[in-house]
TrEMBL record, chains A, B:
Domain TF-B3: 11-116
Keyword annotations: DNA-binding, Membrane, Nucleus, Transcription, Transcription regulation, Transmembrane, Transmembrane helix
A single GO cellular-component term on record: nucleus
Keyword Transmembrane: yes
Name the UniProt record assigns to this protein: TF-B3 domain-containing protein
Amino acid sequence: AAAEVEKECMFDKVVTPSDTGKLNRLVIPKQHAEKYFPLDASSNDNGLLLDFEDSAGKPWRFRYSYWNSSQSYVMTKGWSRFVKETRLEAGDIVSFKRGVGEAARGRFFIDWRRRRGPDVVLPPPHHRGFNLLSVGSDGFACPDVNLLPILILMIRCRALFFLEIITLVLWAVWNTRNDVIFTGISPSLLMQAKV
Amino acid sequence: AAAEVEKECMFDKVVTPSDTGKLNRLVIPKQHAEKYFPLDASSNDNGLLLDFEDSAGKPWRFRYSYWNSSQSYVMTKGWSRFVKETRLEAGDIVSFKRGVGEAARGRFFIDWRRRRGPDVVLPPPHHRGFNLLSVGSDGFACPDVNLLPILILMIRCRALFFLEIITLVLWAVWNTRNDVIFTGISPSLLMQAKV
DNA sequence: GTTGCTACCTGAGCG
DNA sequence: CCGCTCAGGTAGCAA
């Protein structure tokens, strides 16, 4: 039934970790929200209930509203169930469509597909310390050829090594000055300190 | 203007690391909150917006409310901006005052000053991975004698060292498989890969 | 106590 | 540099 009516794609979204996580909401990019799901002042300011069908004809109902504080449009109630039952994961693509033609005009459809490519986690930009893998424009993962992160990692390693040494020295010096009871590591440094 | 009206101090608070950190809130000690910023049932249960002026006459607006879950009074919205713009740090002192006399009664003022004493960072307890310095009961810094953190640091260093090696190996292997253009480091590995 | 949901809030990134 | 967007949060409540 649902598979046979004529539809047109409104927009796709590559879902983020937040969209599939415990926040229980899907952010609808503002441009698409305002184009396809307008919230007039006349519509209830508590948001709307929107009905969708998936490709198997299964109905899904989401609460759709606007968050003033973040100035964003979201699907809330009903969304977490969708994530769970379709086992949606970050990086997967959700596709919003609407019916065209007399039989389906005004009906909404929702569909989803696995992300292409191997199982790659896309950390948020500010958490990207270093990546061994990146995602190319073709949607497939590839090793990150940007070598800067590797260099940074190496430098960090060296820095930590020095920190380790410095810590031990500081500790030894402190023991020397305060003549505290020896508590168990680095006997050689201690001996040296006590001379 | 603000500097010339008569004020009286309500209370000072030595701000904690949480007050200046990512929690974006200032806890108001309950005794002072209930005395000076009462939240009646009649007042909006969403909290209040309180306006303050600093000694330069600059206005600051904070959302002030009660958190049931922690049974504490807090300044939320607006507080993080205050922290940033005044470069407030843990240990600094924030002073809440109110106007007295006909010209200023009912107006609130806020002021801040640097902590006295040495430059000591007080990390929140659950972030204390390792400290080279602790703060003694006299308020002065002293080396931390807890050695566990040092051991953890050493282990971390070793782990990172292995990561570094693994990264280089992976990179070399990838170069081998894809025969990409050499981009600039580790000529020896590259040569090996190209053979 | 745990989960789902509403309504807030902020910072990073980007144009 | 400024303003917008939105990913990632929090508090509080209800079931």
